[in-house]
Amino acid sequence: MAKRNIVLRGDEILRKSSREVTEFNEKLWVLLDDMAETMYAQDGVGLAAVQVGILRRVVVVDTGEQLYELINPEIIEESGSQTGGEGCLSFPDEYGQVTRPMKVTVRAQDRNGREFTVEGEELLARAFCHEIDHLNGRLFVDLVEDEEPAPRSRRKHR
Ligand code: NI
Q1: How many A from CA of 48 to the centre of ligand 1?
Q2: Ligand 1 is a single-atom ion; what residues have CB below 5 A from it?
Q3: How far, in Å, is the centroid of ligand 1 from the Cα of 47?
């Protein structure tokens, strides 16, 4: 595994839509492993492939319980709403209140191409939404309701 460089604000790639993954091969597995290592090294709770410069629909999320690898993820159900602090590893100095669904169901494929669904609530729902937005070139800064100083802990960055 190897850490990768994180693309930062201002880089146009963050605004691009990522392409579907069709090949579930060694190259994908290396990318997933590198993305997880990069996320953990930065104390993030999620990372999308575009944030390491790869325009593929690949996301990793870990809010503290387990690592989720989501390939070609889609939100198929959402309910409720929550407003809370959010950040992004690509925007290390920005933080703000963002409203997201309280609960989402995501359909995705695993690293071998098998389809599965996963439910997330609260922080996990927020992380899924934030990362899936990245795959469509949508950034949390578009959604921030009122900006506030970044917390000392980077734990909420993703
Ligand atoms: Ni982000």
Answers
A1: 7
A2: 88
A3: 6
pLDDT digit string, tens, across residues 114-153: 999 999 999 999 999 999 999 999 999 999 987 776 665 5
Does residue 121 belong to any structural domain of this protein? yes
Q: Which residues belong to the active site?
A: 131
Range of the structural domain that residue 109 is part of: 12-157
Domain CATH code at residue 31: 3.90.45.10
How far, in Å, is the centroid of ligand 1 from the Cα of 38? 13
Tell me the three state secondary structure of residue 79: strand
Q: What is the 3-state secondary structure (H, E, C) of 104-139?
A: EEEEEECCCCCEEEEEEECHHHHHHHHHHHHHCCCC
Residue 2 inside a domain? The answer is no
In a domain, 87, yes or no: yes
41-64 pLDDT, tens digit each:
999 999 999 999 999 999 999 999
What is the distance between the alpha carbons of residues 52 and 5, in angstroms, rounded to a whole number? 6
Domain count, the chain: 1
